[in-house]
Amino acid sequence: MNHFKLIIYILIATNTFFISAQNAINGSIKDTNNQPVAGANIMLNTVPNKFSTTDLAGNFTLPNIPDGSYTLTISHIGFKTINDQITVNSNSTDFNFTLNTDILNLHTVVVTGNFSPKTQLESSTSVTTLNATSIKQVYPQGTANLLQNIPGTFTDASAGEVFTRVYTRGVSAAAEDDMGWYYVSLQEDGLPVSLVQHSYYGPDLFHRVDLTTSIVEALRGGSASITAMNAPGGVYNFISKTTTEKLNGEIQLQNGVQGEGNPFHRADAVLGGGFGNNWFFNAGGHYRHNDGARNTDFTFSKGGQFKFDIKKENSRGYFKLYGKYLIDYTNRYNGVAATNWNNPKAAFGQNFNSTALLMPEFNAAIPDGRNLNNTNGFNPANGVHAKDLAFGFDLFQNLGNNWSVKNNMKFSTKNANWQTSISNAFVSISDPTVYYLVSNGNPFPVGQIVFNDANSGNEVARIDNSGIFSGNPSEYLTDGRLPNDAVMGTSTWYKDNDADEFMQQLTLRKEWDNHDLNFGFATGFSNTSVFTQGSFAFSTYENNPKMLQVTLENPGDPVVALSDAFGISNYGGLFFTNSRAKISQIATFANDRWKLSDKLNLDLGLRFESITHKGSNDRSAPFTQDGGLDGDETTAYDNNILAPTGQRDNFKYNYNYVSYSVGLNYKLTDDASLFGRLSQGNKAPELNYYFNNFANVPINKAGEIQNINQVEIGLKSAVKSFSFTSTLFWSELKNIGVSNFEFDDESSSIFYTPIQFNSSRTFGLEWETSYNPISYLTFRFNGILQDPKATNWNVYDAAGTVDISDDSTTDYSGNTLAYNPKLMFNVAAEFSKDKVSSFLKWKYTGKREGNIANAFQLDAYSVFDAGLGYKISKRISANLLVSNLFNSDGLANFFGANTFGANANGVTTEYINENPDASFIVVPILPRSALLQLNYKF
User: Fold this and answer.
1) For residue range 491-502, what is the model confidence (pLDDT) as tens digits?
2) Higher pLDDT, 466 or 720
3) ∠ CA 860-864-868, rounded to 5°
4) Would you give the end-to-end CA distance of the chain in angstroms?
């Protein structure tokens, strides 16, 4: 019994000892300005699930830590990571640290382009990181607008939030029109936003940046060939906020003005924290109401998104459920008319800063070509209505014996419904095209044409077009005039796109001796469909177009309606596409990081990818019936509706290819490294190949796989006050399929020319530097100097008709590659001291060729952005952002001659010499915008 009591006493004493030996580690973290660092991550490496984050005062707590020695890791984007050996006992539980600035984030761990996390210095890739501070310095005008801050990345955000273009290192040729993300992958938390692309359907439709985004990692070329699905040009990965133990969040209210006083309103919020037993959550999103940077009579953009994740951690890793619901309306800007080929100036009373030249708001009902008993509502104010509902599961587990597994999978259902205008060209009232387009010449209206305001019903102009076939202009019969004696050559652009998608990536990792091996497989499946219908629309050609109801009123004859009450003509007669496809992408990969010595690491990667496209296109023909769809001879606008014939052209093609990438990283010092990489990647065709190029003809061959070869060598260095990266690169792109969008005046049909397969190469230097001479002042300078060439390039000339007997090709080999500036850079100065912060940025975009003929150049332009911030209290701050401070008139894009159905490649040196006074279409950059932000953190 006494022995039993003794054992009890010993157990009690031992238990008491262990209880008393539990300590709480407390500490604070500040920067070199002695300011608290909020949101820093603190982790005790050898104790499972022991981590914390600093609060707004920079303080943290790690409870229940036994006596002993530990490695404490402190990390935060923008600061150098600390790994400190600490001893914990009853006399030592308080620790204070100072984080040194890492102004280029070279000591920050990156995951994009690397199968296992590495610091930028250790990685043999070209990766740039934008942290939360950098993101908040950018006016919220869309994903591409934010990426303008990435060196070596060309972005065209002139159309607005969507319909943008992003590419790197001259790998651009198939991304110059309506598929602007062709070679790169837009990702959220490591998986693509969307698996497929085709005309007017790109990943930016389903992506918005808000407070739920923590950092952006941008990989240019290189290892994208082996780490991304069918995206060898680069990866732009938007990483969501991580979990925190304490409840915290942020609310941001924004109000601004754009252009000529158009309002902008937006609210963002994010909330996260732990709720016991190692469960954590994050949730947030935004809503906005935006009248647009240019003048329209409708709200340009409205809507938002909600995102969430719930995470459970255990001793071996975590499991995370996440999701997103996006519902959004936004539009996109077309071009503006200009004259003077050498020094473009806005024409016809238009303005590079304020003119939108979009159809006004109205509510029409147009017969659905798929089922003529139904109609499709059409309102240009809707723009593109994008919806994305996505759910995903992310799992990471340490399996023991240096094995680990990570699996990330996502399900989504997407819809993008376009109701907007395509083209806004000048069409003279003396041009037969405008009358032929009423119903493709069935019948051709000749005589007295009356134009009435579609809203008021009042007559605007009355003309006689009887003389146009003999070369005489149309004559006005009354005092009424149409602005610029023209109508706008435009079409209602109705597209309905659906996609149900599943994607996942499973990675197994094994570490031993000097090897870090990652291998696994990735899959993606998409079931998608697209319907496109276009009708001619009558509207005035002026700054703020008005819809025109048009009639033929010849004396003694019945009045013939050439348009409906809203101004819509040639119902469904310009475009018809009704297609569907199933896509499967299956890839297997392996990558070994081999430590050859303490300083030298070899990175070897291989990827096999198999992509299958299976689908069909409906053939179509004009619906023929006396009097058109309604059987009424006095309504000409419904005489030519394109409808399915019942015949389908099927396709099923498989694309298999192997890509590889080899990298070396040599550690010069703890703060400097030299790297090199050789990559060979591939790009399988996107669905536009089938949807665009085979109208009413069999799809008798597979598309070509484009080949991308890349070599790069770079130096990275981070010293006390100066950091830089510089990368020399060479890229080659082969088998580029190029087809032009054409209009046949005789048949009033729109078609794509036969594909020409071309090649290009680009040689250049990228750089990124930051200088921090004093703790509160930072200078940044990044950019690219490059020489982009079209090494082998032919353009098909259809001579303006579908008839191939007069067609030819023109060889432009050796010309400068279009739309790629030879010089592009960003310069910034940032100040932050006590409660005040500010920045000034200068973005320079050099001269670019407007087309492959090198006949027209887009001049260089500069844009200045500025910001001023004040910290009102520990929790509240205010910021003023101004984009395009001096309202620069830069031109971002060129669409060719100002005629209906024209394209950029139709403008040659000969054309310009023969038409020195002709007008043409350019797309200006967005005008000045100012925004006041109010932030509350808790």
Assistant:
1) 999 999 999 999
2) 466
3) 170
4) 58
Overall size of the chain counted in residues: 938
Provide the CATH number for the domain around residue 774.
2.40.170.20
Give the strand order in the sheet containing 127-130: 127-130, 213-220, 234-240, 184-188, 191-192
Q: 908-918 burial string, b = 16+ CB within 10 Å, else e?
A: beebbeeeeeb
- Classify residue 100 by its DSSP letter: P
Q: Coil, strand, or helix at residue 8?
A: helix
Question: Does the pTM of the predicted model rise above 0.70?
Answer: yes
Q: Are 594 and 601 in contact (CB under 8 A)?
A: yes
Say what the pLDDT of residue 750 is.
57
Secondary structure E strands in 635-776: 642-669, 672-683, 706-718, 722-738, 741-744, 749-752, 756-774
Quote the DSSP letter at residue 261: T
The dihedral region occupied by 806, where left means phi > 0, alpha psi between -120 and 50, and beta the remainder, is alpha
Rounded (to 5) percent helix, strand, coil in the chain? 10, 55, 35
Q: Are 929 and 292 in contact (CB under 8 A)?
A: no
Residue 58 in any domain: the answer is yes
Predicted pLDDT at 445: 93
Position 247 in a domain: no
Name residues whose C-beta falls within 8 Å of residue 497's C-beta, 6 or more positions apart in sequence: 200, 201, 414, 415, 416, 417, 418, 528, 529, 530, 531
Q: Which residue range is the domain that position 562 belongs to?
A: 306-352+365-649+661-937
* Alpha-carbon radius of gyration of the chain: 30
Q: Answer yes or no: is pLDDT of 15 > 60.
A: no
Residue 117 resides in a domain: no
pLDDT confidence of residue 816: 95
Q: Is the pLDDT of residue 647 over 90?
A: yes
DSSP-derived 3-state class of residue 820: coil
Query: Structurally, how many domains does the chain consist of?
Result: 2
CATH number for the domain harbouring residue 95: 2.60.40.1120
> Quick one: pLDDT band at residue 19, thresholds 50, 70, 90?
very low
Partnered with residue 677 across adjacent β-strands are 663, 712
Give the burial string for 665-686 (b: 16+ CB within 10 Å, else e).
bbbeeebbbbbbbbbbbbbbbb
20 φ, ψ (degrees, to nearest 5): -70, -20
Out of 75, 99, 123, a domain closes at: 99
Domain endpoint, select from 68, 99, 130: 99
d(C-alpha 87, C-alpha 834), whole Å: 34
Nearest Cα residue to 332 out of 296, 378, 376: 296
**186 within 8 A of 193, measured Cβ to Cβ:** yes
User: Counting Cβ atoms within 10 Å, is residue 372 exposed (0-12), middle (13-18) or buried (19+)?
Assistant: middle
Phi, psi (deg, nearest 5) at residue 330: -150, 160
- Residue 157 included in any domain: no
Q: Tokens representing 555?
A: 């004396």
552/563 Cα distance (integer angstroms):
10
Residue 799: pLDDT band (50, 70, 90) is low
Residue 705 is classified by DSSP as P
In the predicted structure, residue 882 carries a pLDDT above the cut 70: yes
